[in-house]
Amino acid sequence: MEKIKLEILGLSPSQSQSGSFALVLGEEYGNRRLPIIIGMFEAQAIAIEIEKIVPNRPMTHDLFKQFAEKFKFTVREIVISDLREGIFFARIVCSDGVRETVVDARPSDAIAIGIRFNVPIFTYEAVLSEAGITTNAGDDEEEQELVEKTTRQPRAFGDQLKDMTVDELQRMLDEALGNEEYERAAKIRDEISKRN
């Protein structure tokens, strides 16, 4: 099956799911777009690498890269391989120089890892045909609207918290504490306190 190369066009808050983000991938030499809804933490991991922000402590995807380097294997490519019942599937293609290994992953994690290794992202025609959105070439107004939608910066973290339920905030707080993200945990705790 022939692969189609994709590039990251933008990351913006999802208008359909609160607390989620739309990662928009574009066909390299075409006018089709592939929007994938991802979670807030995965969006943060992708945005941090795109913006070349160095966190105080390594994030999970940074740890994966360090692990790979220590054990002398590399990532060759990311493939958005399938779409089943509305759920995207991805593969991380790795190599140790002798053998090639394929690892199943969520697209958001695969892309977060792929951009850290600076490798290409691909998909197949079947995936693009089923979930892709076509933009009209030469339609400046439509293209401008797409650019604005896909390049809009995510809202500030505090603003995102305001849209979440107390249960969602509590889960985020537990996760932040478990990951030793104490500044993030403090902001979440403050938002919970405001509501009590």
Summarize the structure.
The chain has helices spanning 40-50, 60-70, 107-117, 125-131, 140-151, 157-162, 166-178, 182-195, and strands at 3-13, 20-27, 32-39, 74-84, 87-95, 100-105, 121-124, 133-134. With 196 residues, it is an alpha+beta fold.
The share of residues in extended strands comes to 25-35%
Backbone CA Rg: 18 Å
Head-to-tail CA distance between termini: 55 Å
Task: Indicate the CATH architecture of the largest domain.
Answer: Roll
Output the CATH homologous superfamily of the largest domain.
Bifunctional nuclease domain
Any idea how many domains? 2
User: Regarding CATH, which class of the largest domain?
Assistant: Alpha Beta
Q: Please report the total strand number as a whole number.
A: 8
Largest beta sheet: what is the strand line-up? 6-5-4-7-1-2-3-8
Notes on the protein architecture:
With about 200 residues, the chain is α+β, with helices and mostly antiparallel strands. It has 2 domains: about 150 residues, Bifunctional nuclease domain (Roll); about 40 residues, no CATH class. It contains 8 helices and 8 strands, in the order E-E-E-H-H-E-E-E-H-E-H-E-H-H-H-H. Strands 6-5-4-7-1-2-3-8 form an 8-stranded mixed sheet. Strand 1 and strand 2 form a beta hairpin. Helix 2 packs across helix 3 and helix 7 runs antiparallel to helix 8. The chain is globular, with a radius of gyration of 18 Å.
